[in-house]
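User: quick one - fold this with EPU bound?
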Amino acid sequence: MSWRKGSNLTWLRGLAGVRQGEALATRTSFGIGGPAEYFVEMANPQAIQVVLDGCRLRGIPYLLLGAGTNLLIADTGIEGLVVRVVNRDHEVAGTRIRAGAGLKMMRLARIAADANLRGFEFAIGVPGSVGGAVYQNAGCWGKELSQVLVEVRGFQPGADARTWSLNDLQLGYRTSALRDGPLHGSLVIDATIQLERGDGEEAKRLMTKLSNERNETQPIKTKNCGSVFKNPPGDSAGRLIQAAGLKGARQGAAVISALHGNFIINQGGATAADVAGLIEHARAEVIRRFGVELEPEVELVGKWK
Ligand code: EPU
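Assistant: Sure. Structure tokens for the protein plus EPU:
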């Protein structure tokens, strides 16, 4: 591979805090995936910018990792550099909160309630980080980040940091310009949300109620990646998978949840190939039975054959 020149490897090995062959499975909610060839955890956006600029100039592939939800990392791992983004700072100003990309959405939901702000309770059902939530416009219970998002700061490698408006971000159902458009490969530094003044205790009660409901309908205590497929327009992937008789279907230690058809559970030691096989099986069966083509929400990353 052309980028694996001595000078590039020397540069990678010289990065502060870099680790070689770092296991990633423990850094994903699925608990699956091979190692990162090179791995570094970084909180400072300026420092991340220097590293990503270096990768771009040198042609070194990189992957930005947040909370590791919604990801299926290949068994052979990830080529190049994985940067785990861990800036978790936040700042409440009136009814707005600016939150670092590495902060968990669930934590931010509690921060909002503690500040007596309402309108972010849905985030208690979003397992990922703020950066990941922007990346795919995460949501729950019919609400999504775009409804409260004001702006996002970030940068494209090779360019200065800037503020992206909602227009720039092209947010749609589980999509954005970062995931599927011109901003792909960019780093989210932080996101600003606009909420409403309200009773924080009421917000907490609502979050408890919603979490309990979610606990009854989704296998949230298992190793999983969240929803495997996006819902097709006007229908539910979980309903279709159930109707196709696929609940409980298994490949290796990966099994389609009996509780919710749109979840695949790693029962312990499942490989990425097991999960990918099960995803393909469900996709093919739903097409065969109902003529509906399900689109994965989970992102397959790394070195697949
Ligand atoms: N259903 C079935 N069988 C199943 C699962 C669901 O018949 O196995 C039916 C339910 O009875 C219900 C309908 O399908 O009538 C919708 O199910 P549910 O309310 O569980 O919501 P969902 O559409 O499957 C979406 C999001 C979830 C989010 C929930 C709750 C997607 C792909 N999924 O699920 O988001 O937590 O609503 O708001 O948009 C995620 O994106 O990772 C995620 C978990």
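One thing worth noting: Residues 90-217 form a domain with the Uridine Diphospho-n-acetylenolpyruvylglucosamine Reductase; domain 3 fold (CATH 3.30.465.10).
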